[in-house]
Design a protein that fits this description.
This protein is of the alpha+beta class and 533 residues long. The chain contains 22 helices and twelve strands. A hairpin with a 1-residue loop joins strand 10 and strand 11. The structure holds protoporphyrin IX containing FE. Its cofactor is heme.
Length: 533
């Protein structure tokens, strides 16, 4: 009997110790650690909205968001739409200045829009500063463990393998495919305009340019197998849509014990995509082994590069070359396709609003490349001619300032680090809202919310006081690896479009930029398209 009591006592004690340990761990993660981080930041003079226990500032964020009525005036397109997407970030910036701290649950975030600190952020080493793990985890079905999600040594390895495939010398080799794809695409617009009664058609240009951009990236990735690539990318686009939930940003997701319908759909789409991609990879490997491929597309380059760099490959990729390739193919489509299409679409919307700039760009294209269609096509294949398109470059730069598709720069301090005079504890997430820094009147002047491409006449360094705060492609070691590819694509596609068509806003256009991982036009960009006289 006494023995039984003893055993029961031991069991209860073990259970109690277990429960206490779990409680202590929860307390540490939910309260002590966040409180310590906040106190470190607080002692350095960094303030912010007071968080509540467990939820942090989430209730306040939801309250500000829901009280923020979206004003959309169909007759007036205003470029200061920023308060409508993250109103709390703006409100807190007004209250606490360009550097402040806030919390979502136990996660501590440092908001930074001070240009001097942006410069410091740019200089940080990738070992100290990476992409937030909680943020990239839900995107795993899309980006896997690719370069977009990798941190530390893993990131360094992936960047070494992939980034060189997007250097200028490689992009030069892709100009012909960009041009060919755009010319084929524009034939459909030509016949629609021709067949219309009054020579004008109302087109949702963002939807259609998305198809063009996907076709270009598919040709760049898969060469002659691009039509299979297009099918795969169409499925990836659905996957991306299924994952685009803005609340991912702050990690306050709905928790469910069982997989939801949407999670099941995401899983099965991912399986389908990977099976199709793997077939392409296998076919290519077989062709290579039989010495039968002369393809120089991205898939081939990544296959070769992955093989050549196998000695310094991190352990987790030793047995997973296939996974490495699949993850990066999905990621390149995700990062490169819609971003470029959106930039082209917002640029056309701005040019539709500003016919004088539309005409200036058209005149420049004629001056550099001549009026004839064939002449233009030849001219655009020469990189030197692309760099002569100064007015077009200014227009694209201004469009990226006001409507850059990338909205958030997010980082996580992977170790305790120095940021200017501040010490940032490990685990802090650092945020910059790109459209806010692109509209800072202190940096850009009182006309910061106006479309004025002339501000870029002498380059970015002369356009504003702090050029480091112009970040449409991000900054530092994590900046966009596809910047050259994207810019070259825009400088080929836009001249081909503008030399043939003129644009004005459709009466059906409703100006409503929204955030869904990228800056999207909620109701599409509807423009009236006519043949240039
Ligand atoms: C106009 C077009 C584009 C814009 C505005 C754009 C913008 C951006 C931005 C803002 C980032 C985040 C950078 C940061 O956090 O500092 C990024 C990252 C990235 N972009 Fe782009 N991008 C464009 C086109 C492309 C293209 C064409 C590709 C590939 C073909 C590409 C591939 C990537 C990749 C792989 C990353 C992740 C880099 C990393 O995590 O280190 N992007 N891009």
């Amino acid at each position: 009997m006494a023995e039984g009591l003893q055993v029961a006592l031991i069991c209860w004690s073990v259970l109690l110790i277990g429960v206490l340990r779990v409680l202590f761990r929860l307390m540490k993660e939910m309260w002590l650690k966040p409180a310590r981080i906040r106190s470190v930041l607080w002692k350095q003079g960094i303030r912010g909205p007071p968080p509540s226990f467990i939820a942090g500032n989430v209730p306040e964020m939801q309250k500000i968001q829901s009280s923020n009525q979206k004003t959309s005036d169909a007759n007036h397109v205003h470029h200061n739409w920023v308060p409508s997407i993250f109103p709390y970030l703006q409100r807190w910036e007004q209250l606490y200045g360009p550097v402040y701290v806030y919390a979502t649950g136990s996660k501590q975030h440092l908001y930074v829009s001070d240009p001097k600190l942006l410069k410091e952020l740019k200089l940080q080493n990738y070992m100290d500063l990476g992409v937030p793990r909680y943020l990239s985890k839900p995107l795993q079905p899309l980006i896997g463990d690719s370069i977009i999600r990798a941190n530390g040594q893993d990131f360094a390895y992936q960047k070494k393998v992939i980034a060189p495939e997007f250097f200028l010398n490689k992009v030069k080799g892709m100009i012909c495919l960009m041009e060919a794809s755009a010319v084929t695409f524009l034939k459909t617009w030509e016949s629609r305009v021709l067949e219309s009664e009054e020579g004008v058609v109302d087109i949702k240009v963002d939807e259609e340019l998305k198809t063009l951009s996907a076709d270009i990236i598919s040709r760049a990735c898969f060469g002659s197998s691009y039509s299979q690539g297009n099918q795969i990318f169409a499925k990836i686009a659905i996957l991306q849509e299924a994952l685009s939930n803005p609340s991912l940003l702050f990690g306050f997701l709905n928790f469910s014990l069982f997989p939801t319908e949407s999670e099941k759909k995401i899983k099965s789409l991912r399986k389908e995509v990977d099976a199709l991609l793997l077939k392409l990879v296998r076919d290519r490997q077989k062709e290579s082994q039989s010495g039968g491929t002369s393809e120089k597309d991205l898939l081939q380059m990544i296959l070769q590069s992955a093989a050549n760099n196998s000695t310094d490959r991190p352990q987790q990729y030793m047995l997973k070359t296939d996974q490495f390739i699949l993850d990066n193919c999905r990621s390149i489509y995700f990062a490169g396709s819609e971003t470029t299409a959106l930039t082209a679409s917002w640029t056309l919307m701005l040019l539709a609003l500003h016919p004088e700039w539309q005409e200036r760009v058209r005149v420049e294209i004629a001056e550099v490349c001549g009026d004839d269609d064939d002449q233009l096509r030849q001219c655009l294949k020469d990189m030197d001619n692309l760099s002569k398109l100064k007015t077009l470059t200014m227009v694209i730069q201004e469009s990226l300032r006001l409507y850059g598709p990338g909205v958030i720069l997010a980082r996580e301090a992977l170790a305790k680090m120095k940021l200017g005079d501040f010490t940032v504890p490990e685990g802090v997430h650092i945020w910059t809202l790109i459209p806010t820094v692109h509209r800072d009147p202190e940096n850009w002047g009182p006309d910061a919310n106006e479309f004025k491409p002339e501000r870029f006449a002498n380059g970015v360094s002369e356009a504003c006081k702090y050029p480091q705060a112009y970040v449409p492609f991000g900054h530092g070691s994590r900046s966009c690896i596809g910047q050259t590819f994207g810019m070259v694509q825009l400088k080929i596609v836009l001249p081909l479009i503008l030399s043939k068509f003129s644009f004005s806003l459709s009466p059906n256009y409703q100006h409503s930029p929204v955030y869904k991982m990228l800056l999207l036009p909620e109701h599409g960009i509807r423009l009236l398209v006519r043949r240039v006289q």
